[in-house]
Amino acid sequence: MTEKMGICEGTNEINKGTDNKYQKEEIQIENNGVVQGKDKINKENPNEKNENKNIEKENKIDIEKKEEGKADQKSEKKEEKQEIKEKDNNETNEKEKNEINKKDNDIKKQAEPNEKELKNKKGENKLENEQKKDVEKDMSKENKENKKENKTEKKNKDEKESKQKIKMENIITKDIIPHGLNNIGSTCYMNSVIQCLYHIFDLSNELLLLYKSKILNQSLLKKLPMTYAFLDVIYDLSFDKKSSISPYNFKKIIGNNKSFRNFEANDSKNLTLYILDMLNRELNENKIISENELYINKIRNYKEEDAKSMVNYFNENQNSLIGDLFNGLKSTNYICLKCKNYIKNYQIFNIVSCNIEKTFMNKYNKSGKRKIEFKVDVLECFKTEEEPNLFNGDNQLFCEKCNKLEDGESCNKICISPKILILFLDRGINNRFNCDVDFPEILDINNFLEVKDKKYELIGVIEHLGQSGESGHFIANCKHFDGNWYIFSDSSIFCTKNKYIKYGLPYLVFYRMQD
User: Fold this and answer.
1) Per-residue confidence at 351, pLDDT binned at 50, 70, 90?
2) Number of neighbouring beta carbons within 10 Å of residue 85
3) Which of 52, 196, 370, 425 is a Cys-bridge partner for 460, taking CB atoms 3.0 to 4.6 Å apart?
4) Could you state, in order of their start, the residue ranges of all structural domains in the chain?
């Protein structure tokens, strides 16, 4: 019984030890005696051993259950804590959400009255953007135009620079030998015009410079038929080794005009006007223009109203080398004799017509002397041109102010004199007034100009040999680049040294303005 009591006490102590957390080793140390008792009992009673084993198992199971219960309690406590935290977090999140919603609502309330302003601003921004786009488009167009202008300015500058470089060396010099022109079938009128135009240094040298600087190139050959035909003749007259040249190509080009198509005698004045007109048109259309500084400076001397109309007229009619050299400007003034209404018209001219018949008859009627004793001076012809012309009877003028036909008069005045002055000595039909006409080597026409200008120097004369204008022979009497005068009768050349000697009847007279 004592042994059993010992066992029971040992078991009770073991059961008590289970109350302590995970302290199995302490229980075994405290119950060393019990364990020893167990061993004795096991030796003595095998049945008791089995019972003890079962009890130990049960005790172990109870311990494990208790441990599991404690673990469950811990997990439950953790879960409770987590739930509490989650609740707290949810509450804080709800509070934050509410605060955020309040702020959003406040912002919306503040934004609501500004929405209209924003819409208006958007509309204004759209308009501003559209205006900016329009401005940008305009700017882009202006930039493109400016780029084009800059390119053209650069080209013009390059052309001017190239011209200036070339002009340092004049192509036409004193060393050039005079050449004749072969008559290829009643072409004396053409040959005389070519010689006089060629001996205008400003024209021939400038065209050769344009060719040398490649402004006149092969790409423009078809567009400038007259220019290139004349340029070929100038080149041959300057550098060909032959003593005379046959201008077949030039005759072919002027043959495009019906008046000069056949190989028949013709008028040198009409051909001169045709050549100058064609050269001016071709150079203008292909924008081979001149700056017209000479004319602009002269126009500045006029009143504002007159100057503006004159500038516009010049810009429309003259922008080429030909216009710069040969174009002058004259005015025709019409006056109503009743109301004194005044009208002024402008007109470009290349040739000044000197009415020999009218000048001669005025001079004869005043003096009463015989016609044979008279000579006519060129300056007297300028006076007759300024005399007023009466319009009366069946030839009245229409007055805009009176709004009906009234007696009137007109008078002509040279406003701007050209650099190359060509005088046509008009002797009437068939040159019936074949009296002598004096024209000086130095001509001063300032008394007949609205604005004073420089004097002129004689450089060439086309003369006619024969009794009538329909027949006979034209020759050119020109001052060559070496300073000597030469008579060109087609292919024949005669030198008269440093003086002009009249050989035939003067028909066209060429003057150049002094430098």
Assistant:
1) very high
2) 10
3) 196
4) 2-91, 180-513
